[in-house]
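Late entry, 3'-deoxy-guanosine-5'-triphosphate complex.
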Amino acid sequence: MTILLAEDDPVTRMLMTRFLKKAGYEVDAAANGAEALDRMTKRYYPMLVTDWEMPEMDGVALCRAVRNMQMDGYVYALLLTARDSKEHIIAGLEAGADDYLVKPVHEPELIARLNAGRRILNLEQSLRIANHRNRVLSITDALTGTYNRRYLMEQLPRELERCRRYAYPLSVLMCDIDHFKLINDRRGHAAGDEVLQQFAARAQKSIRSNSDWVARYGGEEFLVVLPETPYEGAVRAAEKIRGLVSAAVFATRAGDTAVTASFGVASTGPCGPDISLKVEAMIRCADECLYRSKQAGRDRTCGHEIGVARERAGQDAPAHGASVRDLAALG
Ligand code: GH3
Ligand code: MG
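Prediction complete; structure with ligand written out below:
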């Protein structure tokens, strides 16, 4: 564990560095509060031991500044003070210090107090890890490891808003495995589960990992979100996944299974979603296109570019907007 020590007196700084190191801590030392704060902006220090009176920025101002910063974790701050009046100590604690010690520092007491701080930091860290794990679980589909519907309905409106603000296109693909019920019936539910897992893996492998993402929308339906992707790119992305799915059989414990999937593409115009477009309308549009793919014989992609006809040609728009390219029965 690394301690950031802020102490303006060079001799005290050297002596304290030496005995903190002897007690098993890594130590970075700063000559005043401003220098310590600068170091804090560059990396996370779980512990801060600071003198009160220092030039440029004193220990209380440093504690206050640290409490206002966004850090990777909690900073346990211990203030060293030459004055032991109650008002003085209260002011230090209120500024954000967790503990204080009156100078001259009694070394074993400082180490004992830092070790108590370490217990609090360990507890805080395990809570943070547990929170993160719970958050990941709450947004992940347990079977396939993709995002779940909760995440989709939380995140897609944000993507839509971001694309609207920056005038980027946004596309979504609704993917549905063809005749999945037959796979379940012939190979068993466990094999069906394996097919779902492998389908998700193939879809995930096919998209740009830093911006695109997949969510399980329902039983054997997945929604792929493609930010900053116009209609033509989205149709290409759907066709790529479709190709990856049909190109090789899915190996399950119940035997190899040939799988195909159908796709519905919904895209905003190239300049992004118009102000009235809602996430629900976009999903509905992708779903309608998927339905058309199923109707047209499955293992294909149908798509729809929302709102473009209305903007370009002033035509009447259906519920989710009009289309100029209401076509693409590929496959
Ligand atoms: P279509 O080509 O029209 O999409 O036909 P389909 O058989 O794929 O579609 P349908 O909606 O009739 O059936 C979907 C099946 O998916 C029914 C359901 O039992 C199955 N299913 C849903 N969730 C799961 C799951 O988590 N695991 C497994 N193994 N099957 C599931
Ligand atoms: Mg299906």
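The pocket of 3'-deoxy-guanosine-5'-triphosphate (ligand 1) is lined by residues 143, 176-181, 184, 189, 192-193, 196, 219-220, 294, 298 (CB under 6 Å). Will revisit in the morning.
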